[in-house]
Write a structure and sequence with these properties.
With 258 residues, this protein is of the alpha/beta class. It contains eleven helices and nine strands. Helix 1 runs parallel beside helix 3 and helix 9 runs antiparallel to helix 10. It is globular, with a radius of gyration of 19 Å.
């Protein structure tokens, strides 16, 4: 029987849970797994029943990095022709909110995968790092770029150049994770956050995510203009009117994504 390297649960209350499932190799991200993960995100991106996504590696480990066995004989042209950026782009371009639930190791590609999420809930056991330097390599899926943007140059350079791991508490202090919880509650907490988001207007969530991600690399005035336009557009949605009515009537809103 073929190993199920990724487990996916049908949406409950608008939340779909994706679990990496290669426990024997600490959820190492080989090409097959990354391709399957990309296909799942593309599917969920267009699934009207999915409002938010939780990505986890389970109770013990998130992902300990890329599968090093892939690197033993690979040449430059081999790695180039894989065009692995396609797999990462499927996650980057997902319009739905993504919450990563991280227990144990999130190293190398695993750390980069976690950084593709919009919110990171880390268990106290979580360990983050970019140890590629230790095998004569460097991060290749955003580790040098996303870390700079999240925690700043000097903190990022220390992690990238030394390959050292940091604790969940240190990651929290740096701003790399959203919050730290007990290990046994990590996944539940991520699902709770995702469920809360799934109850909001899907259009508003998409606009927030799009503007925030695009604006960070734009000049401030251009980013502010983009934000204003998105804000103005939302006034023409049924969800916005329903949200205001529900607030004034002191009831829960019934958003339809229209």
């Amino acid at each position: 029987m073929e190993e199920q390297t990724i487990l996916i649960e049908s949406p409950v209350n608008g939340v779909c849970v994706i679990t990496l499932n290669r426990p024997k190799v600490r959820n190492a991200l080989n090409t097959e797994l990354r391709q399957k993960l990309a296909d799942i995100f593309i599917q969920l991106n267009d699934d009207p029943q999915t409002k938010a996504i939780v990505l986890t590696g389970g109770d013990k480990v998130f992902a300990a990095g890329a599968d090093v066995n892939d690197f033993l004989t690979a040449k430059t042209v081999d790695v180039y022709l894989r065009h692995s950026e396609r797999y990462w782009d499927a996650i980057t371009n997902c319009r739905k909110p993504i919450i990563a639930a991280v227990n144990g190791y999130a190293l190398g590609g695993g750390c980069e995968l976690a950084m593709h999420a919009d919110i990171i809930v880390a268990g106290k056991s979580a360990k983050f790092g970019q140890p590629e330097i230790k095998i004569g390599l460097m991060p290749g899926a955003g580790g040098t770029q996303r870390l700079f943007r999240v925690i700043g140059k000097h903190k990022a350079m220390k992690l990238i150049l030394t390959g050292d791991m940091i604790s969940a508490e240190a990651a929290d202090q740096m701003g790399l994770v959203s919050e730290v919880v007990d290990d046994e509650t990590t996944i539940k907490r991520a699902i709770d956050v995702a469920t809360k988001l799934a109850g909001y207007s899907p259009i508003a969530l998409m606009q927030i995510k799009e503007v925030a991600n695009l604006g960070v690399d734009m000049p401030l005035q251009a980013a502010l203009a983009l934000e204003r336009k998105a804000f103005q557009i939302l006034f023409d949605t049924e969800d916005q009117k329903e949200g205001v009515k529900a607030f004034l009537e002191k009831r829960d809103a019934n958003y339809k994504g229209q």
